[in-house]
Write a structure and sequence with these properties.
Helix content of chain A: under 10%
Helix content of chain B: under 10%
Structural class of chain A: mainly beta
Order of helices and strands of chain B: EEEEEEEEEEE
Largest sheet of chain B: 7 strands, mixed
Distance between the termini of chain B: 37 Å
Distance between the termini of chain A: 40 Å
Number of helices of chain B: 0
Number of helices of chain A: 0
Oligomer: heterodimer
Chain lengths: 114, 115
């Protein structure tokens, strides 16, 4: 079955430290992978995507993600966290089958501590 | 990046009334739009997939007669919650998908409160 897993409900990081939000996936075929961020009472904002090419993808607000095919992972990273990065982060994969829809992980709440 | 607007951002209605929510892709054409529902502190639940010019495809457990979806053009989809009840109170988010690679862009959401 196609799925996306975000193993951490919450991640706490001190401001200025590097952050990682984990995501693993299970799909058949080549995955289209995405990261989105959601601020309170707002819709989702697109951060970055991996389709093909370089395994390290750079996105908005200084975020990047590394596609690891052998580990079926797509972890979100940032070298130096800001308090304003505190939000809910969703990993997603596009399922290219008959249904053709995006599957979201359950979300990880990121707290950046000042 | 691509922008998706949603209107209204917040609506309060009485039980038994109907509410229409609009979703527009502002700078791209979207043959496919999606409607999600999000409960507090939970992920998005896909309600239906809307294809321009054809009937929406509803996810299992979503009542198509209660949640009417119309995708009238390549830039507009509407969700009408009919005969709303308090349990329909939720955060509704629409999304529009560009052509390949199929990045979905999300609207800001509509907070529906049914009294």
């Amino acid at each position: 079955a196609q799925s996306v897993a975000q193993p951490e409900d919450q991640v706490n990081v001190a401001e200025g430290n590097p952050l990682t939000v984990k995501c693993t996936y299970s799909v058949s075929g080549n995955p289209y992978l995405f990261w989105y961020v959601q601020y309170p009472n707002r819709g989702l904002q697109f951060l970055l995507k991996y389709i093909t090419g370089d395994n390290l993808v750079k996105g908005s607000y200084g975020f990047e993600a590394e596609f690891n095919k052998s580990q079926t992972s797509f972890h979100l990273k940032k070298p130096s966290a800001l308090v304003s990065d505190s939000a809910l982060y969703f990993c997603a994969v596009r399922v290219m089958n008959r249904d053709d829809k995006i599957i979201f992980g359950k979300g990880t709440r990121l707290h950046i501590l000042p | 990046g691509a922008v998706v607007s949603q209107h209204p951002s917040r609506v309060i209605c009485k039980s038994g009334t109907s509410v229409k929510i609009e979703c527009r892709s502002l700078d791209f054409q979207a043959t496919t739009m999606f409607w999600y529902r999000q409960f507090p502190k939970q992920s998005l639940m896909l309600m239906a997939t809307s294809n321009e010019g054809s009937k929406a495809t509803y996810e299992q457990g979503v009542e198509k007669d209660k949640f009417l979806i119309n995708h009238a053009s390549l830039t507009l989809s509407t969700l009408t919650v009919t005969s709303a009840h308090p349990e329909d109170s939720s955060f509704y988010i629409c999304s529009a998908r560009e052509t390949l690679p199929g990045t979905q862009y999300f609207g800001p959401g509509t907070r529906l409160t049914v009294l």
